[in-house]
Amino acid sequence: MNDHILSTDHDYSGPAFKPIYRTRVAVTGGDSAHGRASGRADSADGGFRLELRMPEELGGDATGPNPEQLFAAGYAACFHGALSLLARRHLLDPRAITVEATVAFGRDPADGGYQLSADLIVTWPGVEPDRAAPLLAQASALCPYAKMTRQGIPATISLAP
User: Fold this and answer.
1) Tens of pLDDT along 1-27?
2) Which residue, 10, 27, 123, 140, could crosslink 35 as a Cys pair with Cβ 3.0–4.6 Å?
């Protein structure tokens, strides 16, 4: 097993949000000047670089990843990490855990704009459902992506000077 020191026991606790990690990714529009359709995403540290493409269902050529796939990967990875921490605390082996995220993009009936929906399916061979269920609930409370899907996140949008 991997012995990374990932535990909420080592994190900050206090009355205000204190970032533990921060990342920055810039998206440009590419050939069509449209970040979703032909954009390029680059992280400030150079570790993440990819060309974004629109899925066929939205009129694109689907020759690269799209934002919904990136969100699904982040959500599934984060939830997997939270569940793995909890599994270890309960002396369960997390190596067999698989978390599959389905993210849907569609029209928002409230305003005619767009919205996302997300569903997770956890596969955990060898662990009884009655033993896994409380850990899934705890992971949902711990995982910031799950919190975001329930309550949103603080966010600002501003124009650079």
Assistant:
1) 444 555 556 565 677 888 888 999 999
2) 27
